[in-house]
Specification:
Elements (H helix, E strand, L loop, with lengths): L1 E5 L1 H9 L3 H11 L1 E6 H8 L4 H7 L3 E3 L3 H10 L5 H11 L10 E5 L3 H9 L4 E2 L1 H10 L5 H13 L6 H8 L1
Parallel strand pairs: 1-2, 1-4, 2-3, 4-5
Helix pairs in contact: 1-3, 5-6, 8-9
Length: 168
């Protein structure tokens, strides 16, 4: 079992695409457990229909230790609290009450992904999540490209190069 821990931008992007049900299907198929830091939930509540999120997805919430969050913030002041909380949960997933083999951060911010890489944390972003949905047959190739177009139109920032790398 693997823990998947997204930050608020991922949740917001999936809301824009109306993909919560797809994520739920993917979690079931891959035996993933969706874990969301409470800080991320508070961030996401301001921009999404959270009742739809809770209706369509099974997830667990956790509160990160604020002392640990502040220590990490001192090392990486450019990161938002939600990103820091995601990184902390991935770093300390073995301390959670879920027996899991691994944990992966889902982060879209380039700085946050660079920090994850520096900390040797498994990570990917929303576009890769959509590609995994396509690869598993949850969405079609045309849906994948329509979702990418819709994200771009909604102001989600990514380059064509990132799309080419993900499509491979």
């Amino acid at each position: 079992m693997e823990l998947i821990i997204p930050n608020a931008s991922v949740i917001s992007a999936l809301d824009t695409l109306d993909c919560f049900k797809h994520l739920g299907q993917l979690c079931n198929m891959k035996n993933w457990v969706l874990v969301i830091p409470r800080i991320v939930i508070e961030e996401a509540k301001s921009s999404i229909d959270f009742s739809k999120f809770t209706r369509e997805l099974k997830f667990r919430t956790y509160t990160v230790d604020m002392k640990d969050l502040l220590k990490l913030r001192n090392r990486f002041p450019a990161l938002a609290e939600g990103e820091l909380a995601v990184l902390l949960l991935v770093l300390h997933y073995e301390d959670l009450d879920i027996k899991a083999n691994s944990a992966t951060a889902i982060l879209d911010d380039k700085v946050a992904r660079n920090v994850a890489k520096m900390l040797e944390i498994s990570h990917f972003g929303t576009l890769k999540l959509l590609k995994i949905m396509q690869d598993t047959g949850i969405i079609t190739r045309s849906q994948f490209y329509a979702f990418i177009s819709k994200l771009k139109d909604s102001g989600f920032r990514f380059t064509d190069e990132i799309v080419r790398r993900i499509v491979g």
